[in-house]
Amino acid sequence: MKILALSGSTRAESFNRRLLDIAVAGARQAGADVTVVDLSEYEMPLYNQDFEYSEGVPEAAAELKKLMVEHNGLLIASPEYNGFPSPLLKNTFDWLSRKQTDHEPPMFAFQNKIAAVVAASPGAGGGTRGLTILRIYLQNLCIMVLPGQVTLGQAGQAFREDGRLHNDQIQKATESLGADLFEILQKQSDRLD
Ligand SMILES: Cc1cc2nc3c(=O)[nH]c(=O)nc-3n(C[C@H](O)[C@H](O)[C@H](O)COP(=O)(O)O)c2cc1C
Questions:
Q1: Is 31 in the pocket of ligand 1 (CB under 6 A)?
Q2: Does domain 2-192 have CATH number 3.30.70.240?
């Protein structure tokens, strides 16, 4: 079972990336093969239909789409910007939703994908509002989203030097979310076989 993990923030000290790393560790402990993607290595222009018609899908989007197709599950961390998921995340998924040939089925990159989502924020809300919108967006892309999620508030004070959280309960919940995703992917795979 292969899981692709990505953070909607590429900020050097990103809280979301650090929270994602905990969920990734949980998935790996459960046995998952996880690829962590740094979106700064997949630079794409802001989606523009004229650009797409004249230049086609950017190389970075095509590469990431291929990677997406090769994975069964998604672990996504998203910052909350004014109550919404980050524009980086939305732009990336918008590009990946585009067909590269006339025969490509709609939402090809996202077929049979199951995702788990987490968010971290220096504020008290922990990015919960952003995840509500992110869920709707991912479902529009035909991605199933696990009902469980983790939000981490006051993220500036939440992490220990070793990357773990001071709060054991949230640490365990984040690891468990990664493990749950892996187990559900395994069940889905058994059903499809
Ligand atoms: C334009 C903008 C809007 C923001 N809006 C929110 C918000 O609605 N809720 C929130 O909790 N934090 C908000 N923040 C603060 C972010 O949560 C904070 O910058 C966070 O560190 C971003 O995630 P990262 O640490 O993974 O980069 C906002 C930040 C920016 C730049």
A1: no
A2: no
- Is the CB of 11 within 6 Å of ligand 1? yes
124 in contact with ligand 1, CB cutoff 6 A: no
Query: Does ligand 1 come within 6 angstroms of the Cβ of 92?
Result: no
Confidence of residue 103 (pLDDT cuts 50, 70, 90): very high
Q: What CA–CA distance (Å, rounded) separates 111 from 102?
A: 17
- β-bridge mates for residue 77, sequence order: 7, 118
Indicate the top mutation candidate among 21, 81, 128, 134 to test ligand 1's pocket, ranked by most ligand atoms within 8 A of CB: 81
**Shortest-distance Cα residue to atom 16 of ligand 1:** 121
Map out the domains of the chain as residue ranges: 2-192
CA–CA distance from 140 to each of 48, 77, 93 (Å)?
Answer: 19, 18, 11
Phi-psi region of 11 (alpha: psi -120 to 50; beta: other; left: phi over 0): beta
- The model's pLDDT over 5-59, given as tens digits with 9 standing for 90+, comes to 999 999 999 999 999 999 999 999 999 999 999 999 999 999 999 999 999 999 9
66 neighbors 59 (Cβ within 8 angstroms): no
